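User: My advisor, Dr. K., asked me to get a structural model of this assembly before our group meeting. I'm new to this, so sorry if the format is off. These are the inputs:
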Amino acid sequence: MTDAPRLDHQVCFALYSASRAATAVYRPVLEELGLTYPQYLVMLVLWENEPRGVKEIGEELGLDSGTLSPLLKRLEALGLCERRRSGEDERRVAIHLTPAGRELSRNAGAIPQRLAQAAGLTAEELDQLRHTLGRLTAALHDAH
Amino acid sequence: MTDAPRLDHQVCFALYSASRAATAVYRPVLEELGLTYPQYLVMLVLWENEPRGVKEIGEELGLDSGTLSPLLKRLEALGLCERRRSGEDERRVAIHLTPAGRELSRNAGAIPQRLAQAAGLTAEELDQLRHTLGRLTAALHDAH
DNA sequence: TCCACCTAAGTTGTGCACAACTTACTTGTG
DNA sequence: CACAAGTAAGTTGTGCACAACTTAGGTGGA
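Assistant: The format is fine. Below is the predicted structure of the whole assembly, which you can bring to the meeting.
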């Protein structure tokens, strides 16, 4: 046997597992809203400020049009947003929330508490974790 | 506007982003080995101990047969492993490494260093992060 | 013994991620 | 003005995740 890396020593695997476990906790709650986790992320972006272009949304979430175009079509099919070609720049598609889309934020308010409750970490630990992950993500993006 | 949750306050999004950024750093390195990140994880499990059943591998990684069955077929097509029906229990499929599969671990030894270098965190910070993520993942699984 | 139940693996279908490419529109420069 | 270069969004193809289901083999009582 060689000096193969150990699974349980890998930060990358720890991130991968924690991320999947976290979305798994969100899944049943989001299912009540009829959303997947990535769809919920897009709605978060739109609830903060809309209308937004596809590219803007992608920059917030780190996703490209290959992921977002079909996802936004599904949100439109759900009646939560509308895709309108911009008048000034015909390349742009502005994503507007519908009344139903805005309404949904009311039901989404309590969602982040779920994770906090299930996390088994103190508020300070969660806060520090978020901060460390933010630094890590930024550094990894620079490296990439 | 309502009290919609803020994207940048969400630990779940921080995990999701960090996880994708980390696998993005691994991707070009793994591409040289001809592996995706989940395939690399399966190889890590097998390098540690083989043969293994599909279920065992799934328990290590938190993946089910719906994900692993096609993934293992692709690893077999790459000539890295073989799937053999167990004699004692005909339901089981034992995954054996081929010589090429074992050989690959030689080239994989330096991979985890990549992330450590790109992470922009100290060794202690990475260690603590891994530990916190481990606790978090365990708690989230309990909650789920 | 038999058969209801359990278990391992595989299959099907949906929805991300992401690379690579296409299309349509805009802009800067000669 | 013309047109090369750039940009926004969409499309195509591959490979996860995961739910729901199927298939086939094993197991433990009544």
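One thing worth pointing out at the meeting: The longest strand of chain A covers residues 81-85.

User: Perfect, thanks a lot.
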